[in-house]
Amino acid sequence: MMTSAVPGKSSLLPVVDLPRSGDESLLKGSAMTKRGAYAALSYMFCAVLLVMFNKAALSSYNFPSANVITLLQMICSTSLLFILKRWKIITFLVGDPWSSTNSGSFVPPKTLLHTLPVSLSYLLYMLAGMESVRGVNVPMYTTLRRTTVVFTMIVEYFLIGQKYTISILCSVVLIIFGAFVAGARDLSFDTYGYAVVFVSNITTAIYLATISRIGKSSGLNTFGLMWCNGLVCAPILLFWTLIRGDLALTLSFPFLFSTGFQAVMICSCILAFALNYSIFLNTTLNSAVTQTICGNLKDLFTITLGWLLFGGLPFDLLNVIGQALGFVGSAAYAYLKIKGK
User: Sugar phosphate transporter domain: from which residue to which, for each copy (predicted)?
Assistant: First the structure.
């Protein structure tokens, strides 16, 4: 049964394919293959463009509700997962063989209940992340988001008592210092915008910690967790947008039927799904070093492209120095973590 299914795997997404005996280098990161290079480029491409399209919808078109965008992204992702799972292109369980009789089934209610904390923290993470893009220009958004590591360290300390070395703490201090230096002359400074970014950092830290404690014990892979998040969060968010009147505001939005705005929204929804997939694919095919380098390169592209497209932050030497300090700090932190120092 298993052998008959192998030749037909060309249409499957490569997210759960185990490496063959001659392909072990895919998971070791000693040499990047062509497939691994495509995965790394896809990750950076999706990450940068998603920020740009979300920023375009919320700032350029002045779309009134970040909640509606989040809801549409969830509906799009859940629908795509349903189609891919029904066609047996993906699986939701870790180690679930494609040819098993259970491969067409979905997540049982017991597992859905087990992952409820992950889904709820994901909802807060998505809402705060989407709203944080609105009030801050893209370069400063990227810089401030690098401070997420601080909140992650705090959450890990209180949850599992995790402690860090002096070298790690010094790299984090450099990240924080760079963020403050970069924002010292931000003419578009907005207290609410900065506050939402830091709230987004806190929710990100909680979400990551929740995945670490609950998601990994659920037996679900990335697609399975995405499916649970969609099933739990979409109805809650739909109810929330109804009582807040966000859907009514959306229906009266003047650019709702604009071709440009609709294209931005469609791209945002597709990229939100593609980003989650490309992150998992990149970390599967490449090494941790490659993923870290991609993340830092992605930040550089995001800052540069956001500066060119949306402005909001005139060229200032102090800001450039702050951006550079933040970049060096995040790179040093990643290097130290990979080396275990």
Answer: 39-333
The string of pLDDT tens digits covering residues 154-186 is 877 777 677 778 887 888 888 788 877 876 665
Q: How far apart are CA 58 and CA 182, in angstroms?
A: 23
Q: What whole-number distance in Å separates Cα of residue 247 and Cα of residue 61?
A: 17
Q: How many H-runs (helices) and E-runs (strands) does the chain carry?
A: 15, 0
Dist. CA 268–CA 238, nearest whole Å = 18
pLDDT in tens, 244-300: 889 889 999 999 999 999 999 999 999 988 887 786 666 556 544 445 446 656 666
What is the DSSP code string of 52-89? HHHHIIIIIS--S-HHHHHHHHHHHHHHHHHHHHHTTS
- Closest-CA residue to 12 (of 106, 95, 85, 102): 85
Return the closest-CA partner of residue 31 out of 285, 291, 334, 294.
285
Q: Which one-letter DSSP state was computed for residue 286?
A: S
Nearest partner of 269 among 75, 137, 17, 110, judged by Cα: 75
User: Where in the chain are the domains?
Assistant: 33-87+106-339
Q: What are the residue ranges of helices labelled H in the chain?
A: 2-5, 25-28, 34-55, 66-86, 109-114, 116-134, 138-145, 148-160, 166-183, 191-213, 222-244, 246-251, 259-285, 288-310, 317-339
The radius of gyration computed from the CA coordinates of the chain, to the nearest angstrom, equals 21
Q: How far is CA 293 from CA 49, 151, 283, 286, 334, in A?
A: 18, 22, 12, 11, 9
pTM above 0.85, yes or no: no
Q: Is 319 helix (H, G, I), strand (E, B) or coil?
A: helix
CA distance 227 to 234: 11
C-alpha 284, offset from chain centre: 16
Does an H or E element contain 301, and which? helix 288-310
What is the residue whose two structure tokens read 């550089």? 300
Residue from 277, 9, 11, 276 nearest 20 by CA: 9
